[in-house]
What we know:
- The protein is α+β, with helices and mostly antiparallel strands.
- The protein folds into 2 domains: 3-108, Trna Endonuclease, Chain: A, domain 1, CATH 3.40.1350.10; 115-195, no CATH class.
- 36% of the residues lie in helices and 25% in strands.
- The chain has 7 helices and 11 strands.
- The strands form 4 sheets. It has a 4-stranded mixed sheet. Strands 9-11-10 form a 3-stranded antiparallel sheet. A two-stranded antiparallel sheet has the order 1-2.
- Strand 1 (3-7) and strand 2 form a beta hairpin.
- Helix 1 crosses helix 4 (115-129), helix 4 (115-129) packs across helix 7 and helix 5 packs across helix 7 (165-175).
- The radius of gyration is 20 Å and the shape is elongated.
- The termini are far apart.
Amino acid sequence: MIGNEYIHKFNRALSFNSSLESRFTMMLLADRNVANVREEWPRVKYRWPGATTWHETLVDRHATYASSLRVAYSVKAIAHLGESQALDIGKLVNEQNTGEHFDLYVVVTEAQITPARSDNAEQIVIACDNRNERHCEIVLEFMRTIERPITFMEVERTLGPDIDVNNSLLCLLYDGLVEHLSPDELFDDAPFLQTVLR
């Protein structure tokens, strides 16, 4: 799957060359600590032990975090790890990294990019693009009165149809003010949330 998506967070489009890349991009965008994402940058040089010839590999996603940490991600299907030598190359890249463009090179696969994590992330990204600050404040105020785990539906039933509860809860998840108690499961399958204590 090849395409691109307009990213409101950065006011520009990001391209992707596979559904795995697209799903991982959603996970990055749903992380409030990610300050910027670039695609297919930079080209990274490495060489095998004892060799004099340099090779290049292309970074699939480059993320800069609020902490200033810069991570270069290689997105690979598990089935292609062997033929691509991605893990061996990743080790060499980290060992030979000059620190000019990134601090860490990481290979990610379906083991990290699970359907639940990426689907939940996409919902959060869409919610943030349609954020209503007043509704978020109302929902957060209510959530802070609840001292137990509560489901999306319970909050919706309590606050009624005039408040976009589901969207607001997803925005509060992005903000880190509410947490999903089963982060490796879909929101629909494991809908329990609770307020993060400050």
